[in-house]
Amino acid sequence: MSFGGFPDEGLIFYEGLEADNSKAYWSRHKEVYEAAVKAPMLALLEELSGEFGVSHLFRPHRDVRFGKDKSPYKTHQGAYFRGAGDGIGYYVQFDADGLFAGAGWYTPAPDQVERFRAAVDDEKKGERLAAVLDELTAAGLTVEGDRLKTRPRGFGDGHPRLDLLRHRSLHVGRRWHPEDWLHTPEALDRVRLLWRSTSDLVDWLGTHVGPTDMPRRR
């Protein structure tokens, strides 16, 4: 199946799910989810796989075991391509607000954070990352990620890249609100071009952060 865009029914499905996040709503509209959300997302991932590798489609059910929010379903459909290490890669999301695409380092382990800060502290490596992020923000992307409110231990207040050192994850992205092009193959082109524009960031993270050496949680 070739990607032809995300149908308007997918937007309406998520608008309804936001208003009624229940098993009853999901059961009544499951066929809409399958046809207007899951199928086009899988088609988009298939189109991108030749360039970006193996993809993973997130499941629609939320893990409600440990949180106060017991809503059973996610109000978006996300997917990612793993780049150059654990939690480093490319992300795409469809929801009632349209389409979002991003790239970077999303799920850090302590040893990755340590390597990240060591690289940011290094003048040459750190300045290279800062330059890459400046280019991406100038192109309209937003820098995001989990950040400390204070400076990390061992670094002074006068460090030239203190804001970057505060990061415990680092990614960039762009949100597109619904327009006619969302229902056409242009949506695929926009995601592809954004991901290509972030390749320097993903490469930097893959080189200087890389995969974790710590055992995975079971």
The CATH superfamily is identified as: Protein of unknown function DUF1054
Structural class label: alpha+beta
- Residue share in helices? 40-55%
User: What is the fold-level CATH name, i.e. the topology?
Assistant: BirA Bifunctional Protein, domain 2
Instruction: Indicate the mean pLDDT.
Output: 94
Describe this structure in words.
- It is a single chain.
- The two termini are 36 Å apart.
- Strands 1-2-3-4-6-5 form a six-stranded antiparallel beta sheet.
- It has one domain (8-208): BirA Bifunctional Protein, domain 2, CATH 3.30.930.
- It contains seven helices and six strands.
- Helix 4 (123-138) runs antiparallel to helix 7.
- The longest helix is centred in the first third of the chain and has 30 residues, at 23-52.
- With 218 residues, it is α+β, with helices and mostly antiparallel strands.
- The chain is globular and about 55 Å long.
- The model has no long low-confidence stretch (mean pLDDT 94).
Summarize the structure.
By secondary structure, this protein is an alpha+beta fold.
Notable traits:
218 residues; six-stranded antiparallel β-sheet; BirA Bifunctional Protein, domain 2; globular; alpha+beta; 7 helices
Question: How are the SSEs placed, and which strands pair?
Answer:
Elements: H1 8-19, H2 23-52, E1 55-57, E2 76-85, E3 88-95, E4 98-105, H3 110-121, H4 123-138, E5 142-144, H5 162-165, E6 170-176, H6 186-197, H7 199-208
Helix pairs in contact: 1-2, 4-7
